[in-house]
Design brief:
By secondary structure, this protein is an alpha/beta fold. The protein contains 10 helices and 10 strands. The two termini are 34 Å apart. Bound molecules: adenosine-5'-triphosphate. Belongs to the ABC transporter superfamily.
Length: 241
Amino acid sequence: MLSLLNVEVLYADVILALKGVSMQVAPGGCVALLGANGAGKSTTLKAISGVIDSDDGRVSGGSIAFGGRAIRGHDTASIVRSGLVHVMEGRRVLPHMTVEQNLIIGGHMFGSTAQMRLALDGVYQAIPRLADLRTRTAGYLSGGEQQMLVIGRAIMAEPKLMLIDEPSLGLAPRMTEEVFAVLHRLRAQGLALLIVEQNTRVALEIADYGYVMESGRIVLEGRADELRANEDVREFYLGLD
Ligand code: ATP
């Protein structure tokens, strides 16, 4: 479904942040992208979704295909229309708007209110917590609730694949569990996921395959259960005891 081959990214025309990254995500699959700070995980997601352009970066080598179609260099809006959404790090909700207004922004492409209503109902079904919060002002939600809101806003676009960057960042363990319960539910509905996560344990619980990055390269990959079991991997790359 998603395929990267030898992808290179340059920032400001001088910093080579990705040095030939190759990876795959199967339809309905769930892949974890792991590694230390600065390894290039966020850059990989930005290269795929096309937002790298607005970061003074560019994909300077390799190929990126989604659903059998080359998407390297395409603009983000057309990539979203093709079924690929990117939930960026930092939970950028529109703080003065309600939860439902934030969701409606994610569904701006719908031609009719009936279509919009259907998509909203789909989101509320997948993330019931958002239904309870629909009239609340987004800026006052907790971190975990805001994370659910940005996930909900992204699924308004009815994607086939979601790239999601650090969904557990700054969340208490209970909230992390709740956010991952949402991701598990979306997965069960057939959504494919590519997750960047510092919390290796939760990432490898949901993922079926994992890649570990270091200094702009993939240094290790394997089935999630194998990565979890591999002692060296646990200690050196994943920080698990
Ligand atoms: P983190 O978890 O800290 O976000 P990461 O693995 O996602 O880490 P990236 O954010 O992708 O890493 O960064 C990879 C490298 O690219 C780092 O060396 C970083 O300093 C550099 N970099 C990231 N964004 C830019 C930018 N806009 N301009 C220049 N260099 C950048």
